[in-house]
């Protein structure tokens, strides 16, 4: 028994142990009646906690593969075949199913994020200290529920929330009506609904070269093709040619882009919008960071000047209030909204009435604006502090632009050192990063450094460690270099 | 201008007016510069409210197709072509997209349900008078949010809720662990996740002859084939033959079935489970009505005796507490749960933390059980009253089984009178029904009569009207008969 479970695999340790036992029983290597070593021995051999072995053995027993005999020990069942043969081949089901699995790197990040001792330099969410948990909890006492709130929702979501959003969006220069709004369970779901309800298989989805879209799969899983482009510099003829044979759509983030943090200039927005108009190309404008411009000003979104109904505008409260409430919105021409509302009703019958009531309350009472004001200042402070650290530890090997809002610094290393191996080494040392290749295939130059999550102390330790490992990689003869 | 919008169409009246104007402008029938009749005239011509015309004209103006000149009136724009040409062809996008539109009959039901003056004899949800709105509102003051609750959720959902569910499910004879549970936004989403995360395109989805599954599209939209069967009577060889070439799964509701309200006997469950085991066929067990057995007893689900991990068990609080909270769960082997959790994170990043906290509170405080006890009695009373009405008004033309729980009576008319035309006539008279053909293609014998939504007075008026129209249809020489 020289095998050991892998700590960095997507499957949990005990699941790996269960699979390993099952495979050995199936192959006949562990024959019926064989006695298993005691759990404490197995724990040592596997290099895991005894509780992990215990969990695995419980599951093997539930599956009818091993049995305990009091006073004697644990044995492979006399007839494990029945259990083995009759189980549905779940893994085959999983492997051949439609939706893509998450990128390996992202699954690892998700797993390690569950551990409280990791320093998270990449996380795209707010630290618990930045979340208005106490005031949200207090505000619950002031929520009133309409008599129909506990029933199934109207297809487009709570009318009170849609009205509140009309007012909110006016500050962004968007003048719309409740009929043009669909409430969704976060911006991610908005993308999912657009993929299923508006595009045909094989459609082209243009996006910026480095893009959040590369890190998620709503479009690829629905059979669409992702195409990274410099969208602020016109490449009309080539796009036109491609759109002759296929439907298309363009996904952009002109304000506080994820992962770069950049915002487009007015001229870039104008050029881009005109191009899309000429191509009759719909635009998905993802505006989830809009509230987090440090100077409190608001950059006008494309949607504010959209006279020809090209823009499907997406917003969310995830980045400025709470991601756990799962509330976002789409603003679009009415026929599109009705279609997406139908698909939403068909997939989950609407978003949580409670979350909708709370967001309505926060928007209309002023609680939201006040909370975002504070947050902006806190984020700006964190951004400044992070830049100080970068100057101290990474100035020689990397460059970056000062962030003007949001959560991120798009840190560019002069050398292509941000390889998967570095990502894994950092995990071993307790540090999680979001490498550039999550957002752009084969980008080994960047890290999306987030100043929204880790504490000041963690940022310091994390960036120091990063600097150390990068410098080691730069010195190592094994490092990969382009040519 | 003899055209009028259709009241029973899927599109709202003002959208139909906008489309009609746009088509006429595009075709040149309404040339640039043409003066439009005043809104009050249009309202009379179209047979709609003036506010409907107003809304339509606002939208046409926003689209750049008409313009108002103060003191002169409203005109088709001098150059509407620019606006017409450059708009993305939204309708084409919608028509060619992946997810199926809702059945026409269901879209009509959804639309008319928005009107407060309809009598709803088919609605599968609780009347507002049966919802514990006041006590839920009060309970909000007692909700405590963990520091991480407002952030993105763990992939499988709140651990507190999963632990509470383990206790809750024990009452159903299901012994499971938090690792085997995934929290979802309602049972419908569970089906959606299984379709995307566990099945390949072309898979076979077996279900009972009349089935809720026919009225929704998660599987068909993902390219799967639905096959209605008598599942409690073995037809193993034919299923086996089909499963040689394709993956399959079986969707069943052994407890308080939708739409029939029936429950399987222990023998039927045993036979069915053994067959699936022999076929290595996974079972989706939809158990959303489990709490609503009138006599308060609990019929054991298949999952309680599932020793070989065949059953994907689905539950929800929608039917016994609140559909608006959007909380449901899947219980399944761990590898399956991990896969479905990954797909869930990829499509909406988890369910509302607030809804999860409230459901946890209701389950652990005893509020849930107390509320369900009351509800059961109220539903039983409504069922009895409804049966009295059926005896009075429909005894001669229809038959039914006394319900033992849930929301529904599966009313069988001796003649195939429940045609779409009858459904539409009833709408004209202000009554909404769920015809049998929603659940089984070409079933014109049944209505799913719901006693959970309409008030006693509405049930009476509605059933009287139903009886009247059915009797008229039976007398009419035009009625369709088989042969
Ligand atoms: C650019 C962008 N769009 C959408 C989302 C999803 O946000 P939500 O929580 O509203 O689904 C995120 C969150 O990471 C994001 O960064
Ligand atoms: C049989 C059945 N399954 C699932 C659902 C969906 O329930 P939920 O509100 O939990 O998504 C319903 C609701 O109509 C139902 O009747």
Automatic annotation (TrEMBL), chains A, B:
Organism of this sequence: Caryophanon tenue
GO molecular function, one term: pyridoxal phosphate binding
Keyword GTP-binding (UniProt): no
Domain HTH gntR-type: 11-79
Name of the protein in its database record: GntR family transcriptional regulator
Cofactor list: pyridoxal 5'-phosphate
Record lineage: Bacteria, Bacillati, Bacillota, Bacilli, Bacillales
Family named by the database record: In the C-terminal section; belongs to the class-I pyridoxal-phosphate-dependent aminotransferase family.
Keywords, comma-separated and alphabetical: Aminotransferase, DNA-binding, Pyridoxal phosphate, Transcription, Transcription regulation, Transferase
CDD domains: AAT_like, WHTH_GntR
Pfam families given in the database record: Aminotran_1_2, GntR
């Amino acid at each position: 028994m020289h095998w050991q479970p892998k700590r960095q695999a997507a499957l949990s340790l005990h699941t790996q142990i269960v699979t390993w036992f099952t495979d050995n029983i199936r192959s006949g290597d562990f024959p019926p009646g064989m006695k298993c070593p005691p759990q404490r021995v197995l724990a040592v051999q596997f290099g895991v906690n005894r509780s992990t072995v215990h969990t695995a053995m419980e599951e093997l027993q539930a599956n009818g593969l091993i049995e305990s005999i009091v006073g004697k020990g644990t044995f492979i069942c006399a007839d494990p075949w029945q259990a083995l043969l009759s189980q549905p081949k779940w893994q085959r089901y999983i492997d051949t199913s439609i939706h893509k699995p998450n990128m390996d790197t992202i699954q690892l990040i998700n797993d390690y994020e569950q551990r409280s001792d990791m320093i998270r330099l990449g996380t795209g969410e707010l630290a618990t200290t930045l979340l208005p948990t106490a005031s949200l909890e207090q505000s619950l006492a002031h929520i009133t529920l309409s008599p129909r709130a506990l029933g199934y929702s109207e297809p487009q979501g709570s009318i009170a929330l849609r009205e509140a959003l009309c007012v909110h969006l006016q500050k962004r220069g968007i003048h719309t009506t409740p009929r043009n709004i669909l409430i969704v369970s976060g911006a991610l779901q908005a993308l999912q609904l657009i993929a299923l309800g508006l595009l045909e298989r094989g459609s082209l989805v243009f996006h910026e070269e480095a893009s959040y879209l590369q890190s998620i799969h709503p479009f690829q899983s629905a059979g669409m093709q992702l195409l990274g482009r410099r969208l602020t510099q016109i490449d009309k003829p080539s796009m036109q040619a491609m759109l002759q044979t296929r439907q298309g759509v363009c996904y952009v983030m002109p304000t506080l882009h994820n992962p770069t943090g950049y915002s487009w200039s007015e001229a870039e927005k104008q050029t881009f919008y005109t191009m899309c108009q000429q191509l009759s190309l719909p635009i998905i404008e993802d505006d989830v960071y809009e509230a987090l411009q440090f100077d409190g000003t608001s950059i006008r979104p494309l949607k504010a000047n959209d006279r020809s109904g090209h823009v499907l505008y997406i917003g969310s409260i995830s980045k400025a209030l709470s991601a756990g409430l799962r509330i976002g919105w789409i603003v679009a021409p009415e026929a599109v909204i009705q279609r997406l509302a139908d698909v939403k009703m068909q997939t989950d019958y609407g978003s949580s009435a409670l979350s909708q009531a709370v967001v309505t309350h926060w928007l209309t009472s002023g609680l939201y604006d006040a909370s975002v004001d504070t947050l902006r200042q806190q984020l700006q402070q964190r951004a400044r502090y992070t830049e100080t650290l970068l100057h101290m530890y990474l100035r020689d090997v990397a460059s970056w632009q000062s962030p003007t809002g949001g959560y991120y610094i798009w840190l560019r290393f002069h050398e292509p050192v941000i390889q998967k191996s570095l990502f894994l080494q950092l995990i071993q040392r307790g540090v999680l990063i979001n490498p550039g290749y999550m957002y752009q295939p084969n980008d080994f130059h960047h890290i999306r450094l987030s100043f929204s999550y880790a504490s000041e102390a963690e940022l310091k330790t994390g960036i120091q460690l990063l600097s150390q490992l990068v410098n080691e990689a730069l010195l190592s003869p094994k490092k990969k270099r382009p040519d």
